[in-house]
Each structure stands twice: as structure tokens, then as C-alpha cells.
Amino acid sequence: MIPLLKRLLDIPYPNRCDCCYARIPHDRLLCDACIAALDKERITYSDWAAEQSAQPWENGSVLFSYRDTARNGIISMKEGERGFAQYAGAQLAEVVKTVCEPDAISFVTWVPVTRRRRLSQGYAHAENLGKALAKTLGIPTRRDLLTEQQGALRQHDLPADARSVYAQRFRYSGGALDGKRILLVDDVLTTGSTLRRCTNLLLEAGAESVSIAAACARVLGKKDADHDAER
Ligand SMILES: [Zn+2]
To answer: What distance in angstroms lies between residue 175's CA and the mean position of ligand 1's atoms?
Structure first.
């Protein structure tokens, strides 16, 4: 949006921090207090991977433990707000650059939502994050590869051992991916079952490699929020 229009819109529609809802200047994504709090919630992919078995993806990038300020940001992102998604996308790009050469990534894609959900809310949870990440890295995006089938249950209603069954709802809907190197994005990395399923679908379609990136991860032993991670 052009700066003058943003300034004019700031009068009836003030810009607010996605993590605490404080009013912030029109050119800011989050407030200073939340940016400082997020710095304290930083974790690495290794913190998550150390508690897990081997994964099908080549490497992973994460930013924050899923709690407190970062959790508020994820909730706002799921409601379609863009401030946290843009902030996290730009920060996540810096982490991705430490494990991948951006020029070698063919495109960014993200975990989908059902067709009905996308039509009603207009985006997938991880979509604004994926777009911000791709824009910072200067690489294209694709959202035509993966689909989620409609079902009655939501994943966060399920115990961990049922999540891999739930993940079967994701399907591949694109063409051959021969030789493509893909960066797959989700909002929260929990058990990894969703990203494992989506990674395997992309590899079966011929992708040369899949890297994953998530704004948050749930790490045991760290104080995490309960029960409301979508994936
Ligand atoms: Zn804030």
C-alpha cells in the first residue's frame, strides 16, 4: 500500500500490533515490547529435531517457541492479520539463508487448508507467512500443489498418535516436480505429521528436495501453550 494512503487510513483504522493489540505507527509491523519479547522466545530447528526421529526433509528453519507473544502472533495470523506474518517471514528468511542457498530454491509453497475453508476465509493459515518469506528471499510461490480434503474433525482435537492418520487428508494435486527444490512453510511445527505427509507427497511427485520452515515450534521442556496448535 502506498505510504500516503496508509497514513490516511490510520485515522479511522489505526495500525495495531498483532501480538498485543497496542496502537503502533503506520509504518511498523509490531510494537517494540513484542519484538523484544519475541527475541526471548527464539529457538532453533535443532531444539525441535533433537526430540524427534529422522525426517524426510533436507533441513528445517524455525523462529520461536510456541508460547506467549509468538502464540498471540500466530492467532492473529490465523485471523488474517499480516503484521506478524510479515515480521516472522522476514526473520525466517534470515534463518533459511543459514541452511539453504536461496538461489537454489525453486519456489515456496505452504500447508493448504480445505477448499471450503479457503473460499470462506480467503487464505490458508501459512499463506501470508509463506508469501512474506518468499518475497524476502526473492523466490516465487506456488499454491496449486497440495490440497486438504474436507473432514469433520480438527487436528487439535486429536491425540498425537492420531495426527498421522489425520495427515492422510492431505493430497497432491499438481503435475510432475522433477528436479524442483521446494521450501514448504507451515505456521506451527508440533509433531511434524502434517509437514511429513506434505513433504512425502512433494518427493513422490519428483521433487529433488524439500526444506521446511515454520514460524513456531513446540518443544518439550519449554513452556508451551496448550491445546490450540492447529498443526
Ligand atoms: Zn505488541
So the answer is: 42
